[in-house]
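Structure representation.

___
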Amino acid sequence: MNCRQVLLPLFLASAALISAAGEVREEVLVVVNSHVITRRTLQQAVEQEHAALYRQYSGKELDQKLRDAREKTLSGLIDAFLIEDKADDLGIRQTVNDEYLRGVVEDIKKQYNFATDADFERALRTSQGIGIQDFVKLQRRQILNQEVMRREVFSKVAVEDQELRAWYEDHKDEYRQPSRFRLRELVLAKGATAEEQQAARSALAKIQEALKKGVSFEELVKEHSTSPSKSTGGDLGWIGKGFLRPAIENAAMGLKPGEVSEPLETDKDLYLVQLVSAELDLVKPFTEVRPQILEKLQQPKAENAIQNYLQGLRVRANIRYQVPKEQIFKGS
């Protein structure tokens, strides 16, 4: 389970609370501070939770998740109200104003190419059964949830740099980069006849002599190569290990930067390759991967911290069951 999975029931609960807004004279199951959870609200949230479970699980694991869904969903509904009240206590609600939420909607419209609010509204009603107004309310709840958790939980989950470095040293293979080469090539077409092939070999021998005299490989490529790469001086750019012809890769492995291989031959061409640079068995530096490691090590600590924080909110809240828990969980 990751932190997103811990918070997901809260978001599903928020959606159910939005869709149930405005209902009247419904049977009240639980009172949470000044809020109420009705039977219809709970049932809608359970149906949404079931839909999410069917997308993620199957078999015996799915059966177990479905059995636990009603109790888990009710907890999510309660927690959603508690976090909403906490957002009020922290003064967060006023920062998530109408202008801010309108910007959120506009960003979503651009992302999914909705030209007008009407187009977006139709898509929302088809996919989620709600309009823009209710969608904005749902977004407000989710943003408030996230901001409360950021301030109250995630900002307090610390991982020492020494712990990060120790993880890096123990898991360096996870950050190993594939070996790669940067090469230049000089290609001569062999020709079809024996005479043409002999001429190509003689030309290649003269090129090798020129190299010994100090003529640059790049200059010789531009003058003699028959490959389209001659326009860039034969530069093939960076190529990962395993993507070159075995003969060329083996030759490159034996070269130092600036050195040129012995002649290589294919059915149609004669080759010389020059190693420009090589990166073999390199590991990404700690500074580059530190954010990834921090997130990895924070996650289990954050999951425990979230549960402890929510439990603290429940203990301090005024939660009153109007129907016995056992009956609620059985759906009766």
Observations:
- Residues 3-160+287-330 form a domain with the Triger factor/SurA peptide-binding fold fold (CATH 1.10.4030.10).
- Strands lie at 28-32, 35-38, 180-189, 235-240, 264-265, 269-279, 319-321.
- DSSP finds twelve helices and seven strands in the chain.
- The first strand starts at residue 28 and ends at 32.
